[in-house]
Amino acid sequence: MAEGESRSGALGILFLVVMIDMIGFGIIIPFLTYFIEDLATVEGVVEFGFWIGLMMMAYSSAQFLFSPFWGSLSDRIGRRPVILTGLVGNTVFFTVFGLSSSLLMALIARFLAGAFNANIAVAKAYIGDVSDHTNLAKRMGLIGASFGLGFTIGPFLGGEFSDPALRWELFQNTIFETHSYLLPCVIGSLLSTISFVLAIKYLPESNPVEIRKSSKSLNPLKQISNTISDLKRISAMPQLGNLISISVFFVYGFTIMHAVFVLFTELELGFSVAENGRIFAIIGINGLIIQGGLIGPLTKKFGSIKLMRVGTLVCGLGLTLVPHVSHELVWLSMGAVVILISTGNGLFQPSFAAILAQRTRESGQEMGMVMGAQESASAFSRIIGPLTGGLVWDATVNQGGWFSNATAFHLCGLMMAIAFLLQLKTKPSEAPVRGHLEEC
Q1: Overall domain count for the chain
Q2: Residue 303: left if φ>0, alpha if ψ -120 to 50, beta else—which one?
Q3: Is residue 401 part of a domain?
Q4: What is the pTM of this model?
Q5: How many whole angstroms separate alpha carbon 424 and alpha carbon 319?
Q6: 246: pLDDT strictly greater than 90
Q7: Do both 135 and 168 map to the same domain?
Q8: Do 227 and 200 belong together in one domain?
Q9: How far apart are CA 51 and CA 103, in angstroms?
């Protein structure tokens, strides 16, 4: 097999690996609320929002803690064994989560799933190993595409295959009747197993022994300390620090919604698990259309700064309107709202990334350090966002006046408004670089 064909096959396997990682993240979204409510009710716990937020926080926290470890380990022993280890972890902990019989067991399973799913950085390093400057950007785009596809497939599978004993006679009087949300988790495990087998057969090592590095510490705490130091240094720079703040507020506002969206649709709209899965599939499909097809022509016409600002406003509007959808035209109004949310996010993410890359080059900073610092800041937002949403929901859902089940969504809108105001400090570049970043 020619070298080009071998690398093409390896990239296909990587696409599959990252997509399955995102399926594993997204597959629980439609049923997580119902699952936690079931477990909490048995244990006499009434703080549903807190536990839902805590479950999402556990996954993101594990990824934050273990991503540097897996990346450094892959520098020492190679990318392939680390990627394979992550797939084994996926296979095990998908199923363990579905079999959870207590809140603590589910929390531990979700944390360990996040720890083993923290190898996306290794997949990016693999692409860097096998690419040059002429195809690196295009190949990195595979990561974004697999994210979008995985987030579309995952929630759909989670919704359609939850509680199968109520829908198909085949599953009655089986373990899938006593564990209503096990089947989508088993499906996730099977997909991960298939990916593992394909990786064993077709994924070669990209980091040769002779160039491997062992200078980096594998101590996660030391790595986090170094990352925090980089973040402090970047945040002190006027332009880059402002962009980091924009990212923090946008991601924070966006992830508050993750903990409360299904709580709202279940309580106020009576949505089933499957209906929630379909809603999230709409979000994923629209995101793919925006980022996969429209963002290029829109950037050439309007520029990244305008698209970032419009995306923030549109996303914030959609998040604020969630609790105000029409109960009579629920699917039409909810469909319109989630399209606003996904369109805004789809415009913001690539536009922000292009601006950050441009400003990093202009300031003469190391791209890897700046991107790592920004990702760490975003990870922190993803950790506290769902927990904030859950706590606000528990505190306000049964209140009246200014405080109600709409409060958490209004908080999302407020965070987006702050992000937008910070964006007004971002001015067009005086020294554009070649390529798609010219419009920054």
Answers
A1: 2
A2: left
A3: yes
A4: 0.81
A5: 21
A6: yes
A7: yes
A8: no
A9: 8
pLDDT value at position 211?
64
Q: Among all chains, which residue has been given the structure tokens 């259309």? A: 289
**Phi first, then psi: what are they for 270, rounded to 5°?**
70, 25
- Give Cα separations from 339 to 293, 331, 346 (angstroms): 16, 12, 10
Is the domain of 39 the same as that of 181? yes
Q: Which is nearest to 324 in space by CA: 258, 252, 412?
A: 412
Inter-residue contact 203 to 13 (CB < 8 Å): yes
Q: Does residue 210 form part of some domain? A: no
In 326-391, the DSSP E strands lie at none
Torsional sign, CA 380, 351, 372, 119: positive
Mean pLDDT along residues 252-271: 92
The counts of H helices and E strands in the chain are: 17, 0
For position 367, which CATH number holds? 1.20.1250.20
- The neighbour count for residue 69, using CB atoms within 10 Å, is 20
Span 411-437, pLDDT tens digits? 999 999 999 999 998 877 654 444 444
364: left (phi > 0), else alpha (psi -120 to 50), else beta? Answer: left
pLDDT at 291 over 50: yes
Of 350, 351, 359, whose CA–CA distance to 239 is shortest? 359
Same domain, 9 and 60: yes
Q: Do 412 and 346 have their domain in common?
A: yes
| Residue length of the chain | 440
What's the confidence (pLDDT) of residue 132? 66
Amino acid at 34: Y
52 with 390: CB under 8 angstroms?
yes
* CA distance linking residue 118 with residue 74, whole number of Å: 12
User: How many degrees, rounded to 5, is the angle at CA 261 between CA 62 and CA 352?
Assistant: 65
Using an 8 Å Cβ cutoff, are 248 and 378 in contact?
A: yes
**Pair 168, 257 in one domain:** no
Q: Is the dihedral of CA 213, 15, 437, 248 positive or negative?
A: negative
> Using an 8 Å Cβ cutoff, are 328 and 181 in contact?
no
In angstroms, the CA 304 to CA 148 distance is 20
Hey, what are 238's tokens?
A: 């006027």
DSSP string over 120-131: HHHHHHHHHHH-
Kindly state whether residues 238 and 198 are assigned to the same domain: no
DSSP 52-65: HHHHHHHHHHHHHH
